[in-house]
Specification:
Elements (H helix, E strand, L loop, with lengths): L1 H21 L9 E9 L13 H8 L3 H8 L13 H15 L6 H11 L15 E7 L2 E9 L9 E4 L6 E7 L9 E9 L10 E2 L51 E6 L2 E6 L17 E6 L15 E5 L4 E3 L23 E2 L4 E2 L17 E5 L4 E3 L2 E3 L7 E3 L4 E3 L7 H4 E3 L11 E3 L5 E4 L32 H4 L19
Helix pairs in contact: 2-3, 2-5, 3-4
Length: 495
């Protein structure tokens, strides 16, 4: 009897245990809310543009800001507070169209765009603007996404993004430009830059498809990352170069050619130097460049000065010259003196002196975008760098060269390197958080590089390679002599 009683008790206990195991486990409910995202600022203009929203005007016209600035450099605007003279208005329009018409801009389209973005700043007016609106999706206190409810329009720079009620989290906006007034300068993506989140910090959350501003044969722009092209022959960085084969030159003009191959730790670049875009001014002439660059660049014990002629090559095969002109121009700053034309370049032979922005849809926040390669093998990057290895924050780097004199055209007398005044070293480079050295194409002097941090592997005048026909670079002038660790000497006194 006792045995039966114990069996019954065990059976009841076992049943209770089974019931407990089978009972559903109630999980804590997740909480998802939408919080307001606010945008402030975003209406700054380039100091060169005198308050004009050039990025907006150029986009609707279908040209790059660089092209529009080149066209506008021919204009004589009226003095502040004065009505423009009717005759000068006609001359100004003719000057603009002399450049812009080759890009398909007509008199009517120029009038339409100019009238739309014209405003009187002294009267408190602004160009047409529409503020963007968005919300952040927050799940259990973690930002997991964004919803752009109104992309806005009329932004000329990146606005500051604030996420209400979520501490320690910051975000960045992507501004896109188009030919449509209603979507030109609109917010097309948001990405987290710092703070805990349920999404990768560098991932953009796109919620609206707005066409970005077109650029001639633009290169693919990769998401922000700290990665640098591999230095091994097995991983030749050909993907960093632009496919120029789709560009169709005007009738009778020479087509660009570019071939990049790698072997035995060397990258061989063969190019005729013809740009993959239409050029304002003299027609570029084909060259016969052949440059061999090391795929394993190393910093040298001392820097090496630049001479005239090519010192680097852009990713479209066009040579990049140093930040100074020839002796006839007193080694002047070609950017400061307004000597550059299409895409920060000029001829002959055609070459760049500063970052060729027209090659890319955007350079903003592009930490992996290669602009070109210096002849010591180090890449020249867009002016943005990762603050940490995970690249949760990005900063725009600045040159450390400062203006010291306005009385000399010679760049080495006009500017001086001031250590610590910017982010970059004397040659305009720095070692990143990943331990790799790069040059950066800054907005200010020296624009690309000021000297070699490594050892140039290219022979010829100015370490720029032999020119076709044995000619010297830069108009046939001999490169200026250099001093170890110094700079080219000043030019002779002008009469």
């Amino acid at each position: 009897m006792k045995t039966l009683s114990r069996l019954i008790q065990f059976s009841v206990l076992f049943s209770l245990l089974l019931a407990a195991c089978a009972a559903p486990v109630t999980a804590s409910a997740s909480t998802t809310t939408n919080v307001t995202v606010t945008f402030s600022g975003g209406y700054e203009t380039d100091p060169r543009d005198g308050g004009r929203p050039v990025v907006l005007i150029a986009s609707v016209l279908g040209v790059t800001p660089t092209v529009f600035r080149q066209a506008f450099s021919l204009v004589k605007p009226a003095a502040a507070g004065q009505e423009p003279d009717p005759v000068q208005v006609t001359l100004n329009k003719a000057a603009l169209l002399s450049v812009l018409s080759s890009y398909g801009v007509t008199n009517e389209s120029l009038d339409t765009v100019s009238n739309y973005y014209r405003y009187n700043g002294s009267a408190g007016e602004t160009w047409p603007r529409k503020s963007a609106a968005a919300t952040a999706i927050v799940t259990n206190g973690v930002v997991t996404g964004f919803n752009i409810t109104d992309a806005g329009a009329g932004y000329t720079s990146t606005p500051t993004v604030t996420i209400s009620g979520v501490g320690g989290v910051t975000a960045a906006a992507t501004v896109s430009y188009s030919k449509n007034f209603n979507t030109n300068g609109s917010i097309t993506a948001l990405s987290l830059t710092t703070g805990n989140s349920g999404m990768p910090a560098a991932q953009a959350v796109n919620t609206q498809d707005v066409n970005a501003q077109s650029a001639p044969q633009a290169a693919t722009v990769m998401p922000p990352t700290a990665a640098q092209p591999s230095s091994s022959s097995a991983n030749c960085p050909t993907n960093n170069f632009i496919d120029i084969s789709t560009y169709k030159p005007k009738a009778g003009a020479t087509a660009p050619s570019l071939k990049v191959t790698c072997a035995n730790g060397v990258m061989l670049i063969e190019t005729n130097g013809i740009p993959n875009f239409d050029v304002v001014g003299p027609t570029p002439t084909a060259q016969n460049y052949r440059w061999s660059l090391t795929l394993n660049p190393q910093k040298a014990n001392r820097t090496t000065d630049l001479s005239l002629g090519p010192v680097a090559v852009a990713v479209n095969g066009v040579p990049i010259y140093g930040p100074f002109e020839s002796p006839q121009d007193s080694y002047g700053d070609p950017v400061l003196e307004g000597l550059l034309r299409t895409c920060n370049g000029h001829a002959i032979p055609f070459h760049f002196h500063a970052r060729p922005d027209c090659l890319f849809k955007t350079v903003v926040n592009q930490t992996s975008l290669v602009i070109g390669y210096a002849f010591d093998g180090f890449p020249i990057m867009a002016p943005y760098a990762c603050v940490d290895v995970a690249c949760t924050q990005i900063k725009k780097v600045k040159s450390s060269w400062q203006v010291i004199s306005s009385n000399s055209r010679n760049v080495w007398e006009h500017y001086q390197y001031v250590a610590g005044s910017g982010d970059l070293d004397k040659c305009n480079g720095m070692t990143g958080v990943d331990g790799k050295y790069r040059y950066y194409s800054t907005d200010a002097f020296p624009y690309t590089i000021a000297c070699y941090s490594g050892t140039s592997t290219v022979s010829g005048p100015g370490s720029g390679g032999q020119q076709p026909g044995g000619q010297q670079p830069a108009g046939g002038q001999q490169p200026p002599p250099t001093r170890p660790g110094g700079n080219p000497p000043p030019p002779p006194a002008r009469p």
